[in-house]
Amino acid sequence: MYSENQIEIFVLISSISLAVFILLTVYFIVRLKLKDIELKKSKKQIEKHSNNLENLVEKRTSQLMEKERSYKNLYEINKGILENSPAGIIRLDKNFHVTYENPEIKRILRVAKNEDSNLMNKDIRKVAPVKNSKKVGVFDQLLCLEEIDTEFSIKSECSLTYLTIRGVPLIEEDEFAGAVILVNDITKRKKAEAELNKAFESAIKILSDTLEIRDAYTVGHQMRVSQLTAAIADEMDIPKKQKKGLVVASIIHDVGKIKVPSEILSKPGNLNDIEFSYLKEHPTVGYKLLKGVNFPWPVAKIVYQHHERLDGSGYPKGLKKDKIMLESQILAVADVVEAMSSHRPYRPSLGIEAAMHEININKGKLYSKKIVKACQNVIESGFEFQEVDEIEFEGETRVRI
Ligand SMILES: [Fe+2]
User: Fold this and answer.
1) Could you tell me the CA-to-CA distances from 156 to 113, 160, 289 in Å, in that order?
2) How far is the centre of ligand 1, averaged over its atoms, from the C-alpha of 329 (Å)?
3) What is the average pLDDT value for the chain, to the nearest integer?
4) How far is the CA of 57 from the centre of ligand 1 (A)?
């Protein structure tokens, strides 16, 4: 049997073991509890983050949908503008190939809706080789990152269409990346302008004829002078608009003679000083008559200076050299050449040779050397005044052009 001591030791060891077991059990229970608390905390945090994330996704989705709606809206607006634009619109890529054309382009090119305009994916420079006045391809200017703005016409079997082209280059990293081209049909406007021009030319002609009814000696003179001024202007490469003003001024350059008494206008032979002083009034009278007309060219001023001479010996102001308008200087040369080479009732024609001799001996003195040279070239190249039909004035048949 066990001694008392042994039993005590056994009891002590058992008690200690039990105590350790209880302590360990409590420890693990507490630890488990703590873990459980942590897990619950983490779960709450995860739930919270999950909720935040959900909210964020929902917000972002809503923003994206809003943006999509707005882009769609914008797309519809742009599509509506492009498809209903009264101007033709073409988009080019960097190789000048057409990547977009709106429906108006087909209308302008008279192409049926179900047909191909023949522009898509083509090089615009080849299908529409539009050149400027210097014979340079207009679309090539876009390569220099310059805008283009020009007019041209398309001829088909039974119609002529006038168009304007405006192009803006698209630039990416300082390089040409394509272009947007606006095309407008201006045929109606051009036709209206032509009608207006016709009416205007008729009015000018009537003004010219009115004088010629009074001045029997110079019938057709102004029109023939205008033929020569036009030829000289072409020879001198005078800009188109300036030439038009010169020609209009030439047709009516003597309109101021309307105030000169008809006895002086129709007097055969030389005029005395008093009569000549009346005649010398005609550039001033012409200027006063024409200055109130809103011409797009300086017609009144050209007429005013057409008897001025380079050395100041002309009239009415005695202007010298470059104080005289170029147009008036050209008109002066053509006026003298026509007057000398045409027949007058009080003298036969002096001939074109005499007329050319007159301007040649006075070139640099009365007339510009450059203009005399241009006139010489015109005459030598076979220029002839046109005398085409005859009309009757007060029962008298007179030659006119
Ligand atoms: Fe005159």
Assistant:
1) 18, 6, 45
2) 12
3) 88
4) 90
| 264 or 1, higher pLDDT | 264
CA distance 87 to 84: 9
- For 189-400, CATH number out of 1.10.10.10, 3.40.50.80, 3.90.1100.10, 1.10.3210.10 equals 1.10.3210.10
The string of pLDDT tens digits covering residues 180-193 is 999 999 999 999 98
For residue 23, the CA-to-ligand 1 centroid distance in Å is: 137
CA of 268 to the centre of ligand 1 (A): 17
Q: If you ran DSSP here, which 8-state letter would residue 169 be given? A: E
pLDDT at 202: 85
Main-chain phi, psi angles of 177, to 5 degrees: -120, 10
Contacts of 100 (CB under 8 A, 6+ apart): 89, 90, 91
Instruction: With a cut of 50, say whether residue 279 has pLDDT above it.
Output: yes
Query: What does the DSSP assignment read for 60-96?
Result: HHHHHHHHHHHHHHHHHHHHHHHHH-SSEEEEE-TT-
What is the distance between the alpha carbons of residues 313 and 318, in angstroms, rounded to a whole number?
A: 6
> How far is residue 302 CA from its own chain's centroid?
28
**CA–CA dist 44, 364 (Å, integer):** 107
More confident residue, 196 or 333: 333
pTM, rounded to two decimals: 0.64
Q: Alpha helix (H) ranges present in 313-385?
A: 326-341, 351-361, 369-380
- What are the residues facing 390 on neighbouring strands? 399
pLDDT value at position 4? 85
CA 292 to centroid of ligand 1, rounded, Å? 20
Cα-based torsion angle of the residue sequence 68, 69, 71, 76 in order, rounded to the nearest 10 degrees: 140
181 pairs with which residues across the strands?
A: 90, 167
Contact 129/136 with Cβ under 8 angstroms? no
Report the SS3 class of residue 308.
Answer: coil
Domain boundaries, the chain: 1-84, 88-185, 189-400
Q: Residue 398 — very low, low, confident or very high, per pLDDT cuts 50/70/90?
A: very low
Provide the CATH number for the domain formed by 88-185 in this structure.
3.30.450.20
Please report the sign of the dihedral spanned by the C-alpha atoms of residue 84, residue 89, residue 94, residue 96.
positive
Cα(283) to ligand 1 centroid in Å equals 7
Give 397's pLDDT tier (boundaries 50, 70, 90).
very low
